[in-house]
Amino acid sequence: MLELNNITKIFNAGTVDETTLFDNFSFKVNKGEFVAVIGSNGSGKTTLLNLACGTIRPESGTVIFGGNDITRLPEHKRAKYIGRVLQDPRMGTCGNLTITENMALADNKNRSFGLGAGVSKKRIEYYKTLLEACGMGLENRMNVPVGNLSGGQRQAIALIIASMTDIDLLVLDEHTAALDPKSSETLMEITDKIVKEKNLTTLMVTHNLRFAVEYGSRMVMMHEGKCVLDINGEEKKNAKVDELLKIFNQISIEVGN
Amino acid sequence: MDILMNVCRVTLEEGLMYALLAIGVYITYSILDFPDLSVDGTMPMGAIVTAVLILNGVDPWICLPIIFILGMICGAVTGLLHVKLGIRPLLCGIIIYTAMLSVNLVILFKGNGGKTVASFFRKPTIFNSGIANIFPEDWRIVIVSLILVIVCKIFMDFYLKTKSGLLLRATGDNEKYVTMLARDPGHTKILGLAIGNGFSALSGCVIAQQKGSADQQMGVGMVVLGLASVIIGLSIFKNVKFMKPTTMVILGSILYKACLSAALALNLPTEYLKLLMAVLFTIALVFSEKFGGKKTKKGGSENA
Lengths: 257, 304
Hints:
The complex is a heterodimer of chains A (257) and B (304). Chain A contains 9 helices and 10 strands. Chain A has helices at 45-53, 75-78, 99-107, 121-132, 151-162, 181-198, 209-214, 233-237, 241-250, and strands at residues 2-11, 19-29, 34-39, 60-65, 68-69, 82-85, 169-173, 201-205, 218-223, 226-232. Chain B has a single domain, classed as ABC transporter involved in vitamin B12 uptake, BtuC, CATH 1.10.3470.
């Protein structure tokens, strides 16, 4: 599905702050997998996602997606196949537009944005059923600007929007990190439901070790641009937060959550 | 009484003609969040090209769509500078404004036999030909401008509800979101700047036809005028339910002109006019900051 082959990524090239994050790094996500990526700050988790989504480009190496080389494909073109939820709740939706308008825009993804009516009345019921599934009562507030909603609500909408059209890969970039514990718990449950329902291949970065243990079919721990742990199947099922913490402490770094 | 009536009429005339400019600035500044200085160049371009066209016998009504399209082209160039070459918004505006100073003069000299002011007092304009003749003479300018403004407003209200319009609003709000919708936000920005400058050129076209002349000087202070109208309109009427932002902006333009007319009626010497414009703009800005004119983009924690 997604392959990163022999990637080299250097930040601040040519300055005193030059840092090589990835040196000949390879990573693969198979179809149907739900990969949880953990690791300390600066370990390359988010860079991994940015490389996959096209936000940044590698110095060398290739990014293969569904058999095609997309290394040079700009971000917005990759977005056709990739749905993404970012850490900042303000980034996944438009604050000045209403819930309906946000969803109508997402509904029209991959089609032309011409002079047809922006919001199709027929689709509103469908949007409502999607929102009902998260149990936040958002279906009754369709005409409220999204900017008036809480972070958790915005992230839930962002998640629904990202997975609304047919996508091949869902990318979650610490999407629960900016929320309070209860909201992030709820959002994680909704995430799991959507991923299972749609059988989405998912790449999730999280600072929450428990989420990484409880959710997903595969877990990857990154450190200084390398995968130091990559488990799936039974091994993943038996993984414990305590053990992970131990490994984390062995490589002696700060733990986010 | 007559004098008061006269002042009101002139205020309405000017307010409505400049409302077209305000609609343009509303698109670039409020919707796209792009402070576009090229307006100072595209507005007199609209005026000058109109003068040249009319002097060459082009129908004044046909001038309107021609000027709108020319304005759109200038706006698109501003957008291209920003999107394709990565130049910052303010600088793009300054570049286009500076370039237009020459472009406008070249058009003016070529089309007007080397004079710096193009006059066409005796030629037909939208205010004295065709449909305009059915209206009472004193109120012709007000009525024709009003019709034009309403048509443009309805067009914009319609456009902002289309898919393309929604995408434009999304671009100004959150570019990342547009990228995630598999669209290049740059294209939408270029389109928005094109429409905005189309309106600004159109207002130049209408103002020139009302004055019966056009020159380079007309563009001075247009950005401030447009911005002030937008900010005054949006902040004063923001709590009025069911009023569309386009209406607010039009009313803002009329109010702004009313302040200026009032000052002139109270015998303010005309050389102080631009100073007064700047002062009014400052007051409008402070007022809108204090009382929250621009919508906050933060999430409301009260709903958490």
